[in-house]
Design goal:
One of its GO terms (molecular function) is glycosyltransferase activity. The protein is mainly α and 322 residues long. It is built from 11 helices and 4 strands, in the order H-E-E-H-H-H-H-H-H-H-H-E-E-H-H. The strands form 2 sheets. A two-stranded antiparallel ribbon has the order 1-2. It is globular and about 65 Å long. Residues 1-8 and 288-322 have low confidence and may be disordered.
Length: 322
Amino acid sequence: MLASLSVAASIPSPPISSFQVGPLTIHFYALCILTGIVVAAFLTNRRLTARGAEPWVVIDICLIAVPLAIIGARIFHVVTHWGFYFGEGKDIWAIFRIWEGGIAIFGALIGGAIGAWLGCKWTGIRFWTFADALAPGLLLAQALGRFGNWFNQELYGLPTNLPWGLEIAYPNPAWPAGLPEGTLFHPTFLYEVIWNSLGVLFLLWAGKRFTLQWGRLFALYLIWYGAGRIVWESIRIDPSEVFFGLRTNVWAAIFGVAVGIVIFFVQKRRHPGLEPSPYQPGREGNRSGNVQSQNTDEFVDVSAPPTSELAADTATSAVASK
């Protein structure tokens, strides 16, 4: 009776993970990731524009950052699941079939950071300004992307009798050997969705309350996400390389937390004041209106700029007219 009650109260998995549109197969996993990217772009644009950046400059940065993030995510997955692709009887060409699944967020962060740095050099936006503007949207994108694991019935956790246990179709290629049909599992995708969603609210609040700039808000993102990922990754049962008793992604999460702490305190010491502009020196570009650098969460219309900004604009105009 207890088992039937658990199943009745469990979380069912979707019956399908894809659908056909003519000759194309559309995967819900891909739609979840694309939705996250779009939402993150809109939120980042809003925050960058509030800082005084040109509207939709985020698109120019994303043109470089997103492809490199996907490449980095795939490379990280392959490296941490080496036995899936290399060895006797393995199909090495499978490393290129990314549509079959297999991307890692930590690889995406590395590749995306490189792409964002290049995009910021191209557009003139300060890298840390972009990182801070991106942080809440990135965490929200990760929350939306995790629903893709639900549709794919993958990356779930240990067996559980809790009412919110996750149902997985049986048989399933990822079904743990020895467990009977009807076993429920921890919905690690849902845990991460909830944790990331709370993190979005926390970052928006902390960024506004403490005026976190110069990369310190992005540092909080690394700490928040990494801390949660250490827990969720520790209860997952999908195959993974293990070093010194910990899964590779646990080590990556620990490293992310450490990097976040270092960035936060180093940047706080190096830049105790506020960012003078979202643009690199000499790359201000054409902007309409004025902004208040302290505000990163709302659009601001300041009709009378500070004297220092007015003097700087006047000097720039004088030099340009010569």
